[in-house]
Amino acid sequence: MSTKSTPREQLLRAGSRLLTDLDMSVLARSLSIAAVVEEAGLSHQTFHNAYPGSSRSGERGGKEAFVEDLLAHVTLQYSPQDGDADQPLSDLAAYFEQLNAGLLRRKMIGAMIASDHAGARSSLAPDFDAIDHAVEGAVRHKLRALGGSVRTPLTVAELSTVLVALLDGLALQENLSPGTMSAARVSAAIDSLLDWAVDPVHSDRRERITVPAGGHPSLEGLDHSRVDVESDVIAATETLFAEHGYFSVTLADIAEASALTVTDLKRLFPSKVDIIVAALTPEFERVLRLGRADARLEVKPVVALTRSVTRLAEFVARNRAMSSGMLLALSFEQFHEPGTVTTIREHLPVPSALTPILESGQRRGDFATEASASELATMLANNVVIRSVTRSAEPPEDVTDNVLKVFLSGILPR
């Protein structure tokens, strides 16, 4: 049997090769002016007014000028969700649904056009960046919900890139074979990957510190001329918390930002909670010191309480990133690392700034309640810290007014 290809088969293969090597600007030139003005709802005259001249007569105008302009301003017409640019991407499954709703086709065509045209690459870059940003935001939201951080050596950005590539591939599979990849299956796959990629206790477990037989690892990488390494670490941590949030920051991130090895960082601060405690303790001790001064001066309990609550609100406002980390550690890590919660409560007993004032007020009869002063102090302190963290635009004095307006109404004599 002859294996020689027929002319038809040779022609088809040649056509396939040409399609593979097709310059996308050629495809754009195949657009007719009639189709463009009809799609735009405009007239032929309007088109020629916008792009005067004619490429047929050697001028750079008309159809050729339009194609160049089109390629230099091509867009994926992407918005994070449901056409609302201000609405963040709710979850990664929502991105998969967008791909199947037409985004995948636009993204693939855009990528092909950008590969052949520098102007198109510049024009499409913001769209591709917006997609990456939206997916990374969804990943960070998921991390906060899970109460963990990305395992080293991965970063949030790298994990997001992997998930974008995965979801693009799954959407392509669904377009090629409809019904093979449902949104439910995609969600299950994403959850499985995140379960693997997320460390719920932020321990950077994958890094193994080897201790030489003679004792602790050496500090060869440490610049001994640095005067206050701990302050450098605290400053770097505060910046990272402010930019990325408590859960998304790992000890490896902090070490890199502080120009330390993770080994040396852990010798200074074994955990993120230890850094928070070191950062907040001096500020909190000031709150306690001023409260003790009020007690020695016999400031009336209601006035002293107002002053101490304001100091607590100011303390949080000055240290918002670290205070947010403290609050999240107390809220979530009690389920994973109870020891970290104990560390915070021992070194930063926030209610203790209010307990003596409430006790004094109860003894004097200024506060008419039989509830435990420590219980009342805990309730009040929690409200002050939470409100101060979550309402960054509200000044400390307003936090005090709003919290005490409700709290004092329940404990003052009728």
Automatic annotation (TrEMBL):
Classification via Gene3D superfamilies: Tetracycline Repressor, domain 2
The keyword Transcription appears for this protein: yes
Taxonomic superkingdom: Bacteria
Species classification: Bacteria, Bacillati, Actinomycetota, Actinomycetes, Mycobacteriales
Keywords associated with the record: DNA-binding, Repressor, Transcription, Transcription regulation
Keyword DNA-binding: yes
Entries under Pfam families matching the protein: TetR_C_6, TetR_N
Protein name as catalogued: TetR family transcriptional regulator
DNA-binding region: 250-269
Record domain HTH tetR-type: where: 227-287
